[in-house]
Amino acid sequence: MFIYTIRRFNLFAITFLLLTFIGYSLLRLEINTVWAQQPYLSGWWHYLTHLLNGNLGVDAYGIPMTTHLQYIFPATLELCFFAFSFSLLIGIPLGTLAGMHKGKFIDTAILSVSLIGYALPLFWVALLFILFFSLYLNVLPISGRYNLLYDIPSITGIGLIDILLSDAPYRLEALTDGIKHLILPTLVLTIAPTTEVIRLTRTSISDVIDKNYIKAAQTKGLSPLHIILKHTLRNAIPPIIPKLGIQFSAMMTFAMITESIFNWPGIGRWLLNAISEQDYVAIQAGVMVVATFILIANITADLLGAAINPLVRKEFSAIK
Question: For the chain, N or C: smaller number of CB within 10 Å?
């Protein structure tokens, strides 16, 4: 396991170095900056030292990019966390149900619904949700993080936590309002990863359900619920954990569209604005932060999967 961890960190370091070339190349697109005037390799080394010191550049007003990111990136993480949590809560039970009844009507129905959800354009679903829940039923707000009437100081950057930490007399009302603003973008962002979680869980469950230890548990007279919880899920979930990490990473891409539609103050909307304004400093800062987070999420998922799945460690030892 130690060697496996070291190799994963080596992979992170190599990939991160390759990403720095992309970030540095973005800065050189603006020819009037100091980065474009330097030789490429010496300028890249200068950029790397700044990056390792946490310096991502400054905007036109001299404000460091890290100051912007500490407010907008937690907002994206908050949205992705709730969306991914809901996708697990919905996808794992449905995938388990489909895998337990492979080839039957319920399996076909679940797969059909998940494929339809995966095929629907994200922006179209978002607009339909706004039309139905906000304009027709008038039960959920259209956009934003919370009502502008509430003055919530940013402490952690995560809206709900900031509301709970504030000492405002209207804290309960602000919390209710924040949850309402979170519902629509969370539901929209949940759709795509939920379909993948269903597919991954179904495949893993259908593989495990035919194993001899499952048949032995059935012959012992154990209840179906006990077999699912203690035997099936316990062996089916670990192999898909690294793949779930990839799905969480892919959610960052979907978050850009969701944040733009719902005016959510996250890094996705911030990056789109930076691209439209050709702000290369902001673009490279956003790209480096998002890419580094995705790398960390994938490696963490790999290490977690290896920690709870001994088969991964055995396969690694066999090819080492």
Answer: C
Which residue from 37, 305, 86 is spatially nearest to 195, judged by alpha carbons?
Answer: 86
Distance of CA 232 to the CA centre of its chain: 27
What is the biggest distance separating any 2 CA atoms in the chain, rounded to whole angstroms?
A: 76
Task: State the DSSP code for 239.
Answer: G
Q: Are 185 and 259 in contact, with CB atoms under 8 Å apart?
A: yes
The C-alpha R_g of the chain, in whole angstroms, comes to: 23
Token pair for 289? 């932060």
Place of tokens 């944040």: 259
- Distance (Å, whole) CA 273 – CA 257: 12
Residue-wise pLDDT tens digits, 186-217 = 999 999 899 999 999 998 888 888 888 777 87
Residue 107's CB is within 10 A of a number of other CB atoms, namely: 17
Enter the pTM of the model: 0.87
Specify whether the CB–CB gap between 200 and 243 falls below 8 A: yes
Average confidence score pLDDT of the chain: 86
* End-to-end Cα spacing for the chain: 12
Nearest to 93 by CA among 72, 114, 78: 114
8: tokens are 């994963």
Whether residue 189 contacts residue 79, with contact meaning beta carbons closer than 8 Å, is answered with yes
Q: How confident is the model at residue 38 (pLDDT cuts 50, 70, 90)?
A: confident
Per DSSP, the three-state class of 58 is strand
Identify how many contiguous H helices and E strands the chain contains and give both numbers.
Answer: 15, 0
Q: Exposure of 184 by Cβ count < 10 A (0-12 exposed, 13-18 middle, 19+ buried)? A: buried
